[in-house]
Amino acid sequence: MSSAWSWYVIVLVVLNIGGCVWLLWWTARRRPGDPKPEDTSHVWDGDVTEYNKPLPKWWINLFYITIVFSIGYLVWFPGFGSFAGTSGWTSAGAHDAEKARRDRQLEETFGVYADQPFERLAQDPAAMELGRSIFANTCAACHGSSAQGAPGYPNLTDATWNWGGDPDRILQSVLDGRQGVMPPLGTVLEGIGGDVAVTQAATYVRALRSEDIEATLRSDYMAARGKKYYDSLCIACHGPDGKGNQDLGAPDLTVRNTLYPNTLDSIRTTIIDGRHGVMPAHRDLLGETRARLVAAYVWSLSQSSATAAAQAPPERQ
């Protein structure tokens, strides 16, 4: 606060306190010629009389005590311009003290789970409840309250993981974040074979999800033509069989649980404009232990899904 503003505040405070004292004194005192408390000329309806009785002394003294208290408050706490107060109290200091107290409470709550293996955390109901709570507060905005994601946001309950689904990789994703970049290839393909080349490449990518890719290529001319574009532009990241590369975050193109809709128009958009997916880092926000708890919770969701799929009866042909 500049000295000009400080003096402005000081003058306002002094005028307000002085004005309250003067107003209290001026209105409470009796002047020569004032009628006695029981005498007045104000009478209505013959017997309704207005008296001129002053406020009780205890009421007046209570006002004076309030004024004295306000002066003491301004001496003890900051509020009188740039004067810091004799207590040394500041809102920033109070915030830091409260934060330190809360951090100690959190450390006591989460400290017992530090460095515990994921398998043990996943079998601990209390740990999973904490992980679920952290997920709801931090992750549900993107991945949904059920962790099943949305277009562009991965489903965390299935077995499809662009960056790997083992505990260490999930923990690394939570702590340090991820950035998946699919470069735009529309200009390149259109330069080679026009817009039809984009459609052919998209058709081949969609065909990778068929049960028999070779049979699909023999029966689908557009997919067969698109394979050469895939082999020249896409194979470096997604691999010759389209199963992706978890070190790069390149998706497995053979699965049906895709990050974006499995439609020809959506695949064409991906090829033409590219995609840029960002998972923000949470190391500073959550710390190691809370990140481990929420990562263990996410890992347990995919494990439950895998177990249910393994126990499900085979589909009838």
From TrEMBL:
Heme c 2 binds at residues 182, 234, 237-238. Keywords: Cell inner membrane, Cell membrane, Electron transport, Heme, Hydrogen ion transport, Ion transport, Iron, Membrane, Metal-binding, Oxidoreductase, Repeat, Respiratory chain, Transmembrane, Transmembrane helix, Transport. Heme c 1 binds at residues 139, 142-143, 279. Residues 126-209, 221-302 form the Cytochrome c domain. GO terms for cellular component: plasma membrane. Binds 2 heme C groups per subunit. InterPro entries: CcoP_N, CcoP_N_sf, Cyt_c-like_dom, Cyt_c-like_dom_sf, Cyt_c_oxidase_cbb3_su3, Cytochrome_c_Oxidase_Subunit. Its cofactor is heme c. GO terms for molecular function: electron transfer activity; heme binding; metal ion binding; oxidoreductase activity. GO terms for biological process: oxidative phosphorylation; proton transmembrane transport. Belongs to the CcoP / FixP family. Component of the cbb3-type cytochrome c oxidase. This is Cbb3-type cytochrome c oxidase subunit. It comes from Luteimonas viscosa. The gene is ccoP.
